[in-house]
Design goal:
Length: 394
């Protein structure tokens, strides 16, 4: 995470931060994107033509997103990757787990490229396969493994997705977590019976979905801590739980706090709080609307002129929304400036390097999932892509 101390940061037009920060912007900052690099990216992309398809996650920098053929949340981008069988190269402007999923969902002759290999995800790193297998064994020892369906958030490594595929489970994203949990419960006889879900790796998305969408209570959910013996849970607790949440979280969305929501409501008349479900349950409970990045964008697009919004998600996206909707009052739901540092690793120099290397006939930073992992992970991803109804809407 990159943080800079700033006061609550309204991002709409006419904001004057000078007095609060005590520093006046000279108005002479260098351009966000080096014009020479912009031209080089444009030329390389034009030279590659239809051979390359560039996907851009909503959290990417402006300088990168301008070169995306499609932008989207992780669900939309997975579908877009699968729907481009003719593109020889998929350049994924996002993070490692997204590029892995794209590799799994694309054909053998296609190559997926992540412009900077350091673009990982701290949440995905919180669940390692060996830890997850130990937890699974403990569920077996508690006598509940047969009633459990593993569900992993897209934000996980390919081997965790494969674990879910191998054990009758699936992948979900923030767009379709509710329908994925419904599917998972149904695999073991439905919510009313003994069915349980083992949800990886984001405890907040798991809890928010279980409680706010499935009608379960916070007490129906327990948290498995991979760093404590037995996950910090007794076999009785495992048997009583409906949802076993992995103790993982997003450090970017974890920054938003319920106090700031109260503060904003007191200072901005009529403000609506719009947050991503990776935020803590306390924040989500205080919000007006909760949904994926795609949902957040659609909500702001549909909002009336003059309405006020405070948004709890990654700052690149909030800034872009504020710039695109100057007729709406859009602020960031935090007192600090907080980008996802790994998403930000993909910058224009890396994108230019990746594209120009392709023009020169060299594939750099290819993301390749080994065939066995890919087979099982693909099963888990395809179960997700086959989910009915609202899986692509919010
Ligand atoms: P999505 O809304 O695309 O699921 O994004 C959340 C996120 O944190 C991606 O890393
Ligand atoms: Fe991972 Fe959070 Fe960054 Fe998304 S925003 S890539 S979940 S650290």
């Amino acid at each position: 995470m990159t943080t800079t101390d700033l006061p609550l940061l309204p991002l709409g037009r006419g904001t004057d931060l000078t007095s609060e920060r005590g520093v006046e912007c000279p108005g002479d900052l260098p351009p966000a994107s080096d014009p020479a690099l912009v031209e080089r990216a444009r030329a390389a992309k034009a030279a590659l033509g239809d051979r390359v398809f560039v996907l851009g996650h909503h959290y990417q920098r402006d300088e990168v997103i301008q070169f995306a053929d499609v932008t989207g949340d992780s669900f939309k981008l997975a579908r877009e990757a699968a729907a481009r069988p003719d593109a020889e190269f998929i350049v994924f402007c996002g993070v490692h787990f997204m590029a892995e999923s794209a590799d799994i969902l694309t054909g053998e002759s296609q190559q997926v490229i992540l412009p900077d290999l350091a673009a990982g995800c701290s949440m995905a790193d919180m669940a390692r396969l060996t830890q997850v297998e130990m937890a699974w064994d403990a569920l077996g020892a508690a006598g509940v493994a047969d009633s459990v369906v593993p569900v992993t958030y897209m934000n996980s490594s390919a081997d965790i997705k494969a674990f879910c595929g191998r054990n009758g489970g699936l992948v979900c994203t923030s767009s379709n977590a509710e329908v994925a949990l419904e599917w998972a419960f149904e695999q073991k006889g439905g919510l009313e019976g003994d069915a349980k879900i083992f949800f990886l790796p984001d405890q907040h998305l798991g809890r928010n979905t279980a409680v706010l969408k499935m009608g379960l209570t916070v007490d129906d959910c327990v948290v498995w801590d991979p760093f404590r013996p037995g996950g910090g849970l007794t076999p009785e607790q495992l048997r009583a739980a409906k949802v076993i949440l992995w103790r993982g979280h997003c450090s970017v969305h974890g920054k938003f706090s319920p106090d700031v929501v109260d503060e904003l409501r007191a200072t901005i008349p009529g403000v609506q709080i719009l947050v991503h479900p990776e935020c803590t349950h306390e924040v989500v409970l205080k919000a007006d609307l909760v949904g994926s990045t795609e949902f957040i964008i659609k909500t702001i697009e549909a909002a009336p002129s003059g309405s006020s919004w405070s948004i709890g998600t990654e700052l690149n996206l909030v800034q872009r929304l504020a710039a695109a909707h100057p007729d709406k009052n859009i602020s960031f739901l935090d007192k600090t400036v907080c980008y996802c540092s790994t998403m930000n690793r993909i910058d224009l120099p890396h994108l230019v390097w990746a594209l120009e290397s392709l023009v020169a006939g060299t594939v750099v930073n290819r993301i390749e999932v080994d065939p066995d992992t890919a087979t099982w992970a693909q099963l888990a991803l395809e179960r997700m892509l086959a989910l009915p109804g609202k899986s692509h809407k919010d």
